[in-house]
């Protein structure tokens, strides 16, 4: 009888627990609760930290004390950008090696759409099977909240994107009108800004991916940028178009170190969006314009950011990050439409040194580059390359035999410097 009573009491406790979970979830739904409300309800139920994450592990919403949330985000299951390493995290009851974990994840699914993950971290205790079932029901509530938010965001995003696109090409109206319209959308254009363009490195117009997959990847890319920008600058305009995302970020009021400050801020956002490249994220390159003082300058700055993306990718390859002012001579070289002309110029200027037919050619090109960079300072070049003075003298003589008297001919030095820069550009 005692054993039977314990079984009955246990079942009664499970039913009471399920009723409590259902009651709280139903109340959350009836109140039209957000993801934040849902996470707060889960913390009340399970005591710990609750999170809603995107499919690739970005944290969307958290609930719990600040100390507990900070401790959770410092766990090894999160990378240095704060992304949950979803590749290593199974869903449902975690029982690796027969030992249950103090964190549980369930998928947020609506029909065939995977909206992300609902996770609870319960230090000091593990969830029971009944608790996991309750968490799965909570995931259904999360799916409803996300679907509602996406529907609202889609409408708002459409108007925001259309206005930003018009502004970028100079069709946003007069400065005062554009500033007022932006304010009605929750954006601030009445300040000093830079235009930032992030463009995926993969060409979606020439891909083997299915159209649905491409659209899903681009939507994820846009959401990541929007969330990363809004977290830091809630009033900064940001929207996605085709393969790019454009953001207008505030810029410091001039002075020394302005460019470094802007690039540091942009770099922090890029680090969050890229998330160490995990979670199925695609590589992208980023261009930053010069600061603009007025809405009327936005089209010019947008063109600069686009140019910085294109040339930056040529100079650095994929995942390039480039400020327009850092383009230097590459800015002019990129305007030459026919790369065959550039290649011919390199071949004529460098001759056999333009090729890699011999292993020594790469070393000679490096020697030439450093010599030109140091304005033919032999001692400084020898120090940089760790060469003996006589060894460098021998190399200079060999270079002049191959290229001509560049040490005494400034026009030849300019030609060689340009040829070396062009050779560094990809696709030439």
From TrEMBL:
Note the InterPro entries from the entry. CdaR-like_regulators, CdaR_GGDEF, PucR_C-HTH_dom, PucR_C-HTH_sf
Instruction: State which residue ranges cross the membrane.
Output: none
**Domain CdaR GGDEF-like stretches:** 174-311
Q: Give one Pfam family, short name only.
A: GGDEF_2
**Residues in domain PucR C-terminal helix-turn-helix?**
364-422
Sorted alphabetically, which Gene3D superfamilies does this protein's record hold?
A: PucR C-terminal helix-turn-helix domain
Q: Which domain of life is it from?
A: Bacteria
Q: Which family does it belong to?
A: Belongs to the CdaR family.
> What name appears for this protein in its UniProt entry?
CdaR family transcriptional regulator
Question: Taxonomic lineage of this organism?
Answer: Bacteria, Bacillati, Actinomycetota, Actinomycetes, Micrococcales
